[in-house]
Amino acid sequence: MTAVSEVSFTLREGEALALVGESGSGKSVTAMAVARMHAGMAGTRATGTLRWRGRQGEAVDLLALRGEALRRLRGREIAVVFQDPGSALDPLFTIGDQIAETLRHLLGLGRRAAAARAVELLQLVGIPDPIRRAGEYPHQLSGGMRQRAVIALALAGEPRLLIADEPTTALDVTIQAQIMELLRDLQESRGMAMIFVSHDLGLVAEVAHRLCVLYAGQVVEEGTAAEVLAAPRHPYTRALLDCIPSRDGPPPRGIPGLMPNPLAPPPHCRFAERCAMAVPACREAPVPLRDVAPGRRSRCLRWEALA
C-alpha cells in the first residue's frame, strides 16, 4: 500500500501552505513525513527527497537524518501541533512543567529560566492568568486552552516550520476562529513557515498563502489560496467548494461515490469515477500534474473547461 505518491511542493520561509482534501486523501501522512514522524515505524518507508534549508543556509536531506540529528530537527527546526490536545499533553504533569522540560531539552535553559519562559509562552498564546495555569494539569483546562497550551509547547524550541494537523477539529466554531487567528498572528509575527492540514477550504482561506489539494494520495491542484478558491482548475477542488454551506446560495452538495481503494488505486485519473466532467481519455492512462499557469498546477485533462 502506498499512502501518498508523486507529492511534491516547495515551502518558502514565512509562507503558510495548506494541505486540503477529504479524510484519507493523504494530508496528515504528507505533513508528518516532513517532520519524519514515521521514521522507524514498522512497515513504513519514505522514498524521494526532503530538502531543508538549515539555519546557516546549509542544504539538508531530511530523509538521510538518523538518531540525534533527527531528534534535533524535531522541536528545534520543525514542530507539530497535533489534532487532539488531550492526547498531546501528559495528564501526569502540569502544563508549565511540560513546557519547561521541552525548553530545557531544546534550548538548554536552567530550571528557573525554563519555568519563567513557560509562563511567557502561555501568555503569548493568549492563556489568561498564565502563572496559575502553568501550575495546572491538562484536565483542568478547557479544550480551547489545552490547544493553546499545545501551541505554546510547539513554539518552545523557536521552530522555523510549524505543522498544524487539523488543530481545530475538536473545538466549537467560536474557539476555532480564535485558534485560527492565533496561528495566523504567530506565523506572521515570528516569520515561521507553516503547513496547515485541513479538510475545510473555508477555514484555510483565513491563514494560507498557497493550497495543495490532495485526493487519494496525490496532489491534484496547487496554487495561491486566492486563485484556487476563486477559480479552481480541478473538478475535485470545485466539488470541495460546493460542499461549503452558503447563506444566500444553493444548499451544499456532497461528492457522490467513494474514494478509490488505497490498496489498489486505478491506473488512470483517480477521481474519474466520481467526476461529472470525465471523458473516456480520463480512464485511459495516468494524468500528470502539469503547469496550467504561472504558479498553478492541475492534474486534470479538462482543466481549461473550468476556466
From TrEMBL:
Family matches, as PROSITE patterns: ABC_TRANSPORTER_1, ABC_TRANSPORTER_2
Xref: InterPro entries: AAA+_ATPase, ABC_Ni/Peptide_Import, ABC_transporter-like_ATP-bd, ABC_transporter-like_CS, Oligopep_ABC_C, P-loop_NTPase
Membrane topology: Peripheral membrane protein
Keyword Cell membrane carried by entry: yes
Domain ABC transporter: 1-241
Alphabetical list of Pfam families matching this protein: ABC_tran (PF00005), oligo_HPY (PF08352)
Subcellular locations according to the entry: Cell inner membrane
UniProt keyword annotation of Cell membrane present: yes
Source species, domain of life: Bacteria
GO molecular function, a single term: ATP binding
Keywords recorded for this protein, A-Z: ATP-binding, Cell membrane, Membrane, Nucleotide-binding, Transport
CDD domains: ABC_NikE_OppD_transporters (cd03257)
Family affiliation: Belongs to the ABC transporter superfamily.
Record's protein name: ABC transporter ATP-binding protein
